[in-house]
Design a protein that fits this description.
Among the domains are: 103 residues, 2-Layer Sandwich (Beta-Lactamase); 79 residues; 137 residues, 2-Layer Sandwich (Heat Shock Protein 90), CATH 3.30.565. The chain is built from 17 helices and 21 strands. The protein has a 6-stranded antiparallel sheet with strand order 13-12-11-16-15-14, with helices on both faces. β4 and β5 form a beta hairpin. The chain is flat, with a radius of gyration of 37 Å. It starts with a helix and ends with a helix.
Length: 655
Amino acid sequence: MAAAIPLVLFAGWVVFLNARQERTDSRLAALETLDRVVTRISSDLALQVQIAETLAAAASLDAPDLSSFYVEALRVKETRPLWETIELVDPKGNQVLNLLRPIGADLGATADRENFERILTTRKAAIGGIGPLGPISGKRLVALRAPVERNGELKFVLTVALVPDAVSQILKSAGAPPGWVGVVVDGRGNIVARTIAEQFELGRPASASVREAIAEGSQGTYVGTTLEGAKVDSIYKELPGTGGWSVHLGIPTDQLDAPVRRSAIFLASGGAVSLALALALVWFTARDISQRRVEQEAQAALALKESEERRRLMVDAADLGVFSWNVPTGEVIASQRSLEMLKIAGGTGDVGIPIEALLAGIDPADRASFERKLLQYRDSDGVAAEFRTAPPDGRWLRASARSSRLNGHNSEVIIGVLLDIDEMKRAEFDRQRLLRRLGDAEENERRRISRELHDQIGQTVTGLLLGLKSLEQSIATATSDPAQIDKLHWLQGLASGIGRDIHQIAADLRPTALDDLGLHKAIEAVCAEWTRRFGINTDVQILGPADRLPLEVEIALYRAIQEALNNVVKHGNARNVSLVFDRRKDELRVIMEDDGVGFDLSKLPRSDPNTSRLGLSVMEERLALLGGTLTIESEPDVGTTLFMTVPLSAKDAGS
């Protein structure tokens, strides 16, 4: 009975923890579903905004030529099934064109004046809320507006009326469990999409709890009541760039609390059953205990013998060598397999030999390193050393060892195993050679593409500019239409931009400064260009000689620094970057520091190749091929520091 009481308490506690975990899992699933819906709806609406802005920049609106624009808008609308119509509204709010009516028809004023006035003020594209039943379309639509500006003057406001079906499809396909209620509301709290009863609730105000949550913040949690009267635990999040739209996901409170109720019932019934079983088993236990004690002693002796035999079989099957080194006495007890792996002749397994005899089987160049690493056992729970056996065999082995601490004794005895890693090591060497060849091929291809971009396509763009200049002179002589001259100037600017872009791409692929002037000048040039393009201050300092390095070292460091600068632009949000080259006798150290947002190293993903760690992996791979290392130090809101080291041979250090 005494044993049953803790068992009952433990079982009840486990059931309760499982119930809480199930509740937590439901909330996490809701958060994942919410993030998935927010991402998909935001990206879909952003795409619609981009298309509308592109249509607002149509050349037919320059004059404007409304007939041509009407035809072009119809063609665009046919490719967008969720676009109900396209309107063109003058700055006073009057419709001058609507695809639901013939051109020239009397259309009246535009709807959703609040969104229209916002466009007049901000001159930026915006998404409005869901409107009332349109007098022309007869549907509840979402107005997406984009300004039509020419020469700094607002000519029209382009309005795209969207059917909210896409939002509904995304919300319903999010994979929420049955019974969960999802709703998308606009900035005014009106329903844009809903997982249930959407046909009756579209355009109506959401529940009071939804509107109160919107007023309190852009995201969070709340307990509210649905329009049907059901109590739900809800989470919500605002959609960026939509003027206050938000997605709400409600989990029925009864569904969340059900596991806890079940755990209480299980606890009560389980306690009663356990107590009854305990009473029944007490009598059997008291009768059986003396007999089992005798049997267990015999079984323990047999199990010990079997365990020792299994240990030997496992070691032999794994092709491992086992050894024990008594550090104070210098005596080593090695298995027969260990002696065979080290080519130690004249010995038999499990017989003591001096440590010098064991070291004689190791390549002289690796003996000191092997002994030094194994003697670090006092500072670590386990140590490992890789080494080659003595010539002429020269096979690669790995020794893994730790101190023996049975019952607190023999702490000065090292227990270790030997593993043959020769094939794996040679495969790694082959892999590194292949990666070096791939890197050389990549740089050669970069150099070839850069040269072709500069010599061929660059010359073609130059010829295009000369032709446009000649055409400008011909048009200026033949006509005085300023619109044609302006269009020609726009084409000249576009061609010039293409030329600059081609030159920049060619420089990024293979900067000539790297081949002609070396690493330091190339980095100074790329930092200066980087500061000009992105407005982030850079400081480059060179400590020690600034002589040329081997080409493979310069290329690897240049690409690593280039990748690090790209990460600062994409993720760092920094204002200043410091880059220090510290060239020493036997190595080159590069320290790159920024004052950006930083990140938590413990949360950096290490297994997903589609995450941002891919760039860091490429940098580590490039440096590892040269025997170098990459160390990262970063804290949130403090910044990030990269430490790159590359070993230099005596010839490189003195060059």
